[in-house]
Specification:
Chain lengths: ~100, ~250
C-alpha cells in the first residue's frame, strides 16, 4: 500500500516537472496553435468546476448541507470574496447544516 | 489561484533580488498554507501520511493537479491514469513555462532556466511576469518563502485530519472546493464563455457521476480527465481565444 502511494507520488511529480521544464528546455518557440492555446486557456476553469460539483455535495453529511455550501460559496466568490473567505464560508455552512 | 498574487513590486529594486523575492513570495506562501491545509485533508482521505503529503507537495506544487492525483490514488487507479490525470490538470503550466521562456535574457544558463521552471505555479508565474525580464534570484527567493509553506500546510492538513473529530473533518473537506469556487466564479462573472463552460461542467459532472451508467462505473479521477478534455476542447473549437494566451489563469 505504502509502496503504491510512493510510486504514485513520484509519477505525479515527474509528469508535473516534465510539463514545467519541457518548454524551457526543448520547446523554445512560443505556441502558435490557436486550438491548443484556447484549450489550455479553458482547462483550469473546466477541471476545477468538474472537480467541485457534485463532489462538494457528496462530501457533506447531508445533501442539503452540501448544496447550501456550494450555493453560498459560489455567491460569495461571484461577488469577489477572497479565496480564504470563500473556503471558511463553505466550511461553516457545511458544518452548521450538517448538525441538523 | 491568482487572487493570492502579491501586487507587482512597485518599489525600485535596491535590495538583492533574492531578498526582494523572499519578501514578495511571503504573501503567496501564507495563501498556500491555507490551500495546502485543505489539500492535506483530501490527501489523508486517499491514505497519505504526513511525510508522503509533504513530498507529494514538494514534487508537484500544484493544487488542482495534486487533488486530481489524490482522487485517483483513493480510487486505486493505475499509474497510467495518474500520469494522464496529472498531465491534463497541470497542462496549463506548459503555457506558462512557454510564456516564461520568452522572458529570460539571452545569456541565462540552462540551470537557471530549470531552477525557475521548477517553480512555475499560477501565483509564482504571476510574480515572474510582473517584470519584463525574469530575474532568476528574485524567483528563487519567492519560491523559498512560499513552497515550503505549501508542503508544511499539506502535512498539517493530514495531521489535523487525524486529530480532529470526524464531523469537523467532513466540514473542512469542503474548504478546498470553496477555494476552487473562488478561482472560477470571478472569471465566470466577467467572461461569458467561461460562465457557460462552468455551467456545462457542473451539469456534465453531475450526469456522469449520478445518471449515466457507463461513466458511473468509472472512478471519479477518470471522469475528471475525460470531462475536462471534452468540455475544454469543445469550448476551444467553438470559441477560440484571440490573444496570445498570456492571460491564462
Amino acid at each position: 500500500m505504502s509502496a503504491r502511494i510512493w510510486l504514485s507520488i513520484i509519477v505525479m511529480g515527474a509528469v508535473t516537472v516534465a510539463i514545467r521544464l519541457l518548454p524551457l528546455t526543448l520547446i523554445r518557440k512560443p505556441l502558435k496553435n490557436r486550438f491548443l492555446l484556447s484549450f489550455l486557456h479553458y482547462v483550469p476553469y473546466v477541471t476545477l468546476a468538474v472537480m467541485t460539483f457534485p463532489a462538494i455535495v457528496d462530501s457533506c453529511e447531508t445533501p442539503v448541507a452540501g448544496i447550501a455550501s456550494l450555493v453560498v460559496g459560489a455567491i460569495a466568490a461571484w461577488y469577489g470574496a477572497n479565496m480564504v473567505s470563500v473556503a471558511v464560508i463553505c466550511c461553516v455552512v457545511a458544518f452548521v447544516l450538517g448538525l441538523l | 489561484m491568482s487572487t493570492q498574487s502579491a501586487a507587482a513590486p512597485s518599489a525600485p529594486r535596491r535590495a538583492h533580488p533574492l531578498a526582494e523575492g523572499l519578501r514578495d513570495g511571503l504573501p503567496i506562501g501564507l495563501g498556500y498554507l491555507a490551500v495546502a491545509f485543505s489539500l492535506g485533508i483530501a490527501a489523508r482521505q486517499a491514505g497519505l501520511n504526513a511525510v508522503q503529503g509533504f513530498m507529494a507537495s514538494l514534487l508537484s506544487v500544484a493544487s488542482a493537479g495534486e487533488y486530481a492525483g489524490f482522487t485517483l490514488i483513493a480510487a486505486q487507479a493505475s499509474y497510467a491514469e495518474i500520469a494522464l490525470g496529472t498531465l491534463v490538470t497541470n497542462a496549463r503550466y506548459l503555457l506558462m513555462s512557454t510564456a516564461l521562456s520568452q522572458r529570460f535574457s539571452q545569456d541565462t544558463s540552462l540551470a537557471k532556466r530549470i531552477g525557475v521552471g521548477l517553480g512555475v505555479t499560477d501565483e509564482l508565474f504571476g510574480l515572474a511576469i510582473a517584470t519584463p525580464r525574469v530575474e532568476p534570484f528574485y524567483q528563487y527567493g519567492a519560491m523559498l518563502s512560499s513552497i515550503p509553506l505549501w508542503c508544511i500546510g499539506t502535512s498539517a492538513g493530514i495531521v489535523a485530519g487525524e486529530l480532529l473529530p470526524a464531523r469537523v473533518v467532513t466540514a473542512l473537506s469542503v474548504s478546498l472546493f470553496g477555494m476552487f469556487l473562488a478561482v472560477i466564479m470571478p472569471a465566470a462573472r466577467t467572461d461569458r464563455v467561461v460562465r457557460i463552460c462552468v455551467l456545462a461542467s457542473f451539469v456534465a459532472s453531475y450526469a456522469a457521476t449520478h445518471l449515466i451508467p457507463l461513466t458511473m462505473a468509472w472512478s471519479s479521477g477518470t471522469r475528471i480527465i475525460v470531462l475536462t478534455v471534452i468540455i475544454a476542447a469543445a469550448a476551444a473549437l467553438i470559441r477560440p481565444v484571440d490573444a496570445e494566451g498570456d492571460d491564462a489563469a
